[in-house]
């Protein structure tokens, strides 16, 4: 079982905006491309996304379904990888001052992934989860960084000289 956490320098509401944006799904979920809404209203319970995962020359067509949604605190998903089985992906967003502590719990649920689950796969999952949380943090925080950079690089008025 892979449980990871990360402190994101944005409020839970700001982090939720990224989690609930279908068009941003592939930006933070490692290996995902071409995510699009399959059914429902994301991220309401029962809504589903379909997307591709590329592993070398292999392309998998997957679907992820929302199993629990309590904005802006809890999002639980079930990712269906066809013959590889399904995985439970649970994200808890905790207010941490004015920031967000996100806890990601991902593990095999059904099928081959559960049968083949072992310590080595856990280690690989930890690396993937760390990368996903880093991507999510970058997406959430990049707007704030852009504002800071603009303010630091904005032309400054010359100070009057004192004589």
Could you please describe the fold and organization of this structure?
- The chain contains 4 helices and 7 strands.
- The C terminus is likely disordered.
- α1 crosses α4.
- β3 and β4 form a beta hairpin.
- With 163 residues, it is an alpha+beta fold.
Summarize this structure briefly:
With 163 residues, this protein is an alpha+beta fold. The protein is built from four helices and seven strands; from the N terminus they run βααββββββαα.
- Mass-distribution shape: globular
Mean of pLDDT: 84
- Fraction of residues in β-strands: 35-45%
What separation lies between the terminal Cα atoms? 69 Å
Q: Nearest-angstrom radius of gyration?
A: 19 Å
The helix/strand series, from N terminus to C terminus, equals EHHEEEEEEHH
Extended strand count = 7
Low-confidence stretches: 147-154, 156-161
Content-based structural category = alpha+beta
| Alpha plus pi helix count | 4
Helical content stands at 25-40%
Main-sheet strand order equals 1-7-6-5-4-3-2
Main pleated sheet: 7 strands, antiparallel
């Amino acid at each position: 079982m892979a449980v990871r956490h990360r402190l994101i320098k944005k409020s839970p509401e700001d982090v939720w905006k990224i989690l609930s944006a279908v068009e941003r799904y592939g930006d933070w979920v490692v290996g995902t491309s071409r995510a699009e809404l399959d059914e429902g209203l994301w991220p309401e319970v029962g809504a589903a996304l379909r997307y591709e995962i590329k592993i070398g020359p292999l392309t998998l067509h997957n679907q992820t379904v929302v199993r629990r949604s309590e904005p802006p605190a809890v999002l639980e998903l079930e990712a269906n990888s066809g013959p590889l089985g399904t995985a439970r992906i649970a994200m808890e967003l905790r207010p941490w001052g004015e920031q967000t502590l996100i806890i990601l719990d991902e593990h095999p649920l059904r099928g081959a992934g559960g049968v083949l689950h072992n310590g080595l796969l856990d280690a690989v999952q930890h690396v993937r989860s760390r990368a996903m949380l880093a991507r999510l943090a970058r997406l959430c925080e990049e707007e704030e960084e852009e504002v800071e950079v603009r303010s630091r690089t904005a032309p400054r008025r010359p100070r009057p000289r004192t004589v």
